[in-house]
Amino acid sequence: MDKITVGPMPFMSVMPTLLVGVNVKGKPNYMTAAWATVACMAPPMLCVAINKARYTVKGIDENKTFSLNVPSEKMVVETDHCGLVSGSNEDKSGVFRSFYGKLKTAPMPEECPVTIECSLFKSVECGSHLLYIGKIEEIHADTSCLTDGKPDIEKIRPIVYAQHTYFGVGKQVEKAFSAGKKYRK
Ligand SMILES: Cc1cc2nc3c(=O)[nH]c(=O)nc-3n(C[C@H](O)[C@H](O)[C@H](O)COP(=O)(O)O)c2cc1C
To answer: Does 16 sit in the ligand 1 pocket, CB within 6 Å?
Structure first.
């Protein structure tokens, strides 16, 4: 394969499409986020990179809590809306029906099949963005999206983000932690 250099940029092959839920002055606000991933297994943690200018930052500063929520394909319009409009200019509290869990200050959309409550573990100032690392306090999963008691991707139908485009999840290629066993030198 021929390679060229394309310069440094925040590239990742594919990303999740999530909604960050915060309370600002007691009101829910939802922001679309793709720059998010797992940060730790024990204790379970997630992280999300949020630009300092986002209204969402005010909510995390205020309560030290946030939610990371997984919208399904059918929520793509509302999800993109939360990435186009800022809570500083427009009230987004009515875009979803909010509910609260044990943290009380991390709103979650009823409509999302999986919602995750996080307490702030640490924030790292990276430059334009703050990396928020959240300790997972609870996960709420819709019963219709479970197989054998666990969240099932084929039922959740999460939205994949890449190249300014939303994709669905494609077909299985192989089983992880298993395909490699076929490797021969
Ligand atoms: C698909 C998509 C992914 C986004 N991912 C992020 C992200 O990871 N971090 C971020 O700071 N902004 C991200 N944004 C931009 C924010 O969602 C957008 O600026 C939003 O209006 C901020 O809302 P807020 O000001 O109410 O917090 C994304 C937008 C879209 C459409």
So the answer is: no
Q: Probe ligand 1: pick from 18, 31, 79, max atoms within 8 Å of CB?
A: 31
Query: Distance between CA 31 and CA 47 in Å, rounded?
Result: 14
The tens digit of pLDDT for each residue in 43-87 reads 999 999 999 999 999 999 999 999 999 999 999 999 999 999 999
**CA-based angle 109:134:10, to the nearest 5?**
90
pTM of the entire predicted model: 0.98
Q: How far is 77 from 123, CA to CA, in rounded Å?
A: 30
* Site to substitute for ligand 1 among 11, 54, 67, 130, most atoms within 8 A of C-beta: 54
How many CB atoms sit inside 10 A of residue 14's CB? 11
